[in-house]
């Protein structure tokens, strides 16, 4: 029967399990993200560097292609921590750009017209709401960070001599773990910015500012006050320090795993608090 | 004992350092009976705080609130699975179409995916937004958004629907439509409804029970349905002619009456008394009836009295006069 002839009937059948209900939000958020053509375009653009890296790995593992070249050239073609770090640095920039474009549209449309009361009057908690929204962004960022990284690692492992993967397991684990930390931070920044700033353009600028202006402020603080704690507000430096430690690469001067982790944890906590403060079903005037 | 829809037990709610609800205890409605409960009170009385506490947005500082047998704080998820809520504020997601909005809201409330879409269409047609269901909510008028908010509250077939100011800002036609939908929700679909409104006439039209709040306290709880039944026995009559023997004749028929100047009578009819007997009696005494109204206390009168702005309602006044009647006659 046509729906307009049927009339409203109260649904009294079985309900979907809670986990299934929660998937509605990331699906909806993903639909919003992919509806933006610029996000899709940037996503495609961010695949170029992994493709070049794949080509590099192919060349590095086919000695016959560069047999006639200088012997020192082989050192340049080594798949080691430097190669992984370079890959991570480039892809992390793309991840920030993607978050700046896609992130602002995640929470602000719900907040903008006081839609949060409608979500929170349903059986989902604030934490579940944030995690569900975050899941969509994390998935998007994963497509340009640890997923292609892992593919490259597997590719290299399959092309290199037997035992390479076992001997270099730290590269794979460090890449995945390092990117997970990075993706979590970028997603938190994007969500917090989406929650606090209504205008998408400005929210995107805030995300970019967090990663590209805040480090400058950190350096200024260190230089002006002759202190070291300015580095704590430098997300790039903190993440780079952690990546170096995880990959077993040489740590730049003034950086340590502990400082990096403390800095990331501090930023994560502050961003979570900012989200907690803003994402409430109703504003309470005390 | 039947399960109440809402059960409040010494409920205190504090926001910041200010206590908003100061210990409310009551039982409202009967689960599954399809009754509507009106929540009334002046601004700042604590109506919205009470509703938000029922929804688990605020945590009681003392006492407890139960909805459909579940504690609002401890069993929040179970409560919210059974509730549909239409907020007072203009809440919507502008970028979604009507169908998407309802599908998402229905799915979050537990409708299986394939059912959610079907119910979204069905509900939008039910509330009168069928033709606009593929338009984004941002393009809806205020009245349409109000209906969309009602639709999202009922799309998943809740046992209890909480409507916060449902007729706010609606034109007369849309208001009538909204009230009709509320009536249908309780009478045809067996949903319990809580209506929070400033418009007493709206509450009076759709509610069977009212709770009046003032300064965070419950000051009155009335079963309008019972009062309506009770009040059907009060009659105000105005006649022309010599009515000297009329009062005595009424008395003989068991109807207590108070005679007022200008041929007016306030009469309390016995249960088995039929109105045509009154017409017949008036005709027998050569009286022409100018006015006959079955008077009952309006919600406004009940509200005014609860607020302390009226000493007694007309119904109470009639009862008091009935008690005084023998001396007066």
Distance between the termini of chain B: 46 Å
Question: How large a portion of the residues of chain B is in β-strands, by DSSP E?
Answer: 25-35%
User: How would you describe the shape of chain A?
Assistant: globular
Q: Count all strands of chain B and give the number.
A: 14
Q: Describe the largest sheet of chain B.
A: 6 strands, mixed
Helical element count of chain A? Answer: 17
**Series of H and E elements of chain B:** EEEHEEHEHHHEHEHEEHEHEEHEHH
Radius of gyration over C-alpha positions of chain B, nearest whole angstrom: 24 Å
Q: Largest beta sheet of chain B: what is the strand line-up?
A: 6-7-8-3-9-10
Uncertain runs of chain B: 325-329
- What would CATH call the class of the largest domain in chain B? Alpha Beta
Q: What is the number of helical segments of chain B per DSSP (H or I, 4+ residues)?
A: 12
Q: What portion of the residues of chain A fall into strands of 2 or more residues?
A: under 5%
Task: Name the pair of protein chains with the most residues at their interface, and give those residue counts.
Answer: A-B, 40 and 50 residues
Helical proportion of chain A, percent range: over 70%
Radius of gyration of chain A: 23 Å
Number of DSSP-assigned strands of chain A: 0
**Termini Cα gap of chain A:** 52 Å
Shape assignment of chain B: elongated
Largest sheet of chain A: none
Q: How would you name the CATH homologous superfamily of the largest domain in chain B?
A: P-loop containing nucleotide triphosphate hydrolases
């Amino acid at each position: 029967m046509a729906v307009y002839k049927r009339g409203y009937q109260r649904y009294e059948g079985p309900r979907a399990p809670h986990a299934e209900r929660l998937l509605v939000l990331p699906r909806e958020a993903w639909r919003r993200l992919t509806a933006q053509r610029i996000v899709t375009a940037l996503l495609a653009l961010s695949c170029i560097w992994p493709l070049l890296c794949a080509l590099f790995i192919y060349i590095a593992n086919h000695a016959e292609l560069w047999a006639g070249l200088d012997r020192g050239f082989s050192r340049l073609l080594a798949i080691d921590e430097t190669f992984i770090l370079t890959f991570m640095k480039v892809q992390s920039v793309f991840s920030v750009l993607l978050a700046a474009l896609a992130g602002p549209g995640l929470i602000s449309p719900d907040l903008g017209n006081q839609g949060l009361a409608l979500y929170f009057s349903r059986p989902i908690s604030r934490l579940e709401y944030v995690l569900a929204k975050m899941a969509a962004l994390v998935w998007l960022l994963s497509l340009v960070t640890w997923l292609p990284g892992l593919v490259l690692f597997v590719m290299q492992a399959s092309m290199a001599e037997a035992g390479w993967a076992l001997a270099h397991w730290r590269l794979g684990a460090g890449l995945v773990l390092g990117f997970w930390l990075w993706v979590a931070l970028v997603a938190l920044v994007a969500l917090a910015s989406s929650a606090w700033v209504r205008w998408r353009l400005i929210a995107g600028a805030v995300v970019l500012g967090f990663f590209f202006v805040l480090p400058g402020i950190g350096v200024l603080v260190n230089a002006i006050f002759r202190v070291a704690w300015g580095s704590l507000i430098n997300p790039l430096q903190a993440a780079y320090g952690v990546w170096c430690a995880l990959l077993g690469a040489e740590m730049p001067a003034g950086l340590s795993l502990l400082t990096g982790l403390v800095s990331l944890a501090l930023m994560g906590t502050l961003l979570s608090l900012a989200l907690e403060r803003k994402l409430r079903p109703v504003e309470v005037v005390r | 004992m039947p399960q109440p829809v809402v059960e409040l037990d010494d409920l205190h709610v504090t926001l910041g350092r200010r206590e908003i609800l100061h210990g409310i205890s009551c039982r409202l409605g009967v689960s599954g009976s399809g009754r509507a409960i009106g929540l009334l009170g002046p601004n700042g009385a604590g109506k919205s705080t009470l509703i938000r506490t029922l929804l688990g947005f605020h945590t009681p500082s003392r006492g407890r609130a139960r909805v459909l047998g579940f504690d609002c704080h401890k069993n929040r998820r179970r409560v919210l699975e059974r509730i549909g809520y239409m907020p007072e504020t203009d809440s919507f997601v502008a970028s979604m179409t009507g169908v998407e909005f309802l599908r998402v809201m229905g799915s979050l409330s537990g409708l299986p995916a394939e059912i959610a879409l079907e119910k979204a269409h069905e509900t939008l047609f039910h509330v009168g937004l069928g033709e606009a269901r593929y338009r984004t909510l941002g393009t809806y008028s205020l009245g349409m958004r109000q209906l969309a908010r009602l639709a999202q509250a009922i799309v998943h077939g809740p046992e209890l629907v909480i409507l916060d100011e449902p007729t706010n800002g609606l034109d007369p036609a849309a208001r009538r439509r909204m009230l009709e939908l509320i009536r249908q929700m309780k009478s045809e679909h067996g949903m319990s409804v809580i209506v929070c409104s400033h418009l007493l006439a709206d509450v009076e039209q759709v509610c069977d029970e009212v709770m009046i709040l003032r300064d965070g306290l419950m000051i009155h709880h009335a079963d309008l349905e019972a009062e309506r039944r009770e009040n059907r026995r009060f009659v105000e009559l105005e006649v022309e002619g010599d009515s000297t023997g009329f009062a005595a004749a009424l008395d003989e028929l068991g109807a207590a009456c108070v005679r007022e100047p200008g041929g007016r009578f306030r009469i309390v009819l016995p249960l088995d008394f039929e109105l045509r007997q009154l017409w017949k009696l008036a005709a027998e005494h050569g009286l022409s009836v100018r006015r006959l109204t079955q008077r009952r206390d309006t919600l406004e009168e009940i509200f005014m009295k609860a607020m302390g702005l009226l000493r007694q309602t007309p119904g109470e006044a009639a009862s008091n006069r009935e008690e005084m009647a023998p001396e007066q006659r």
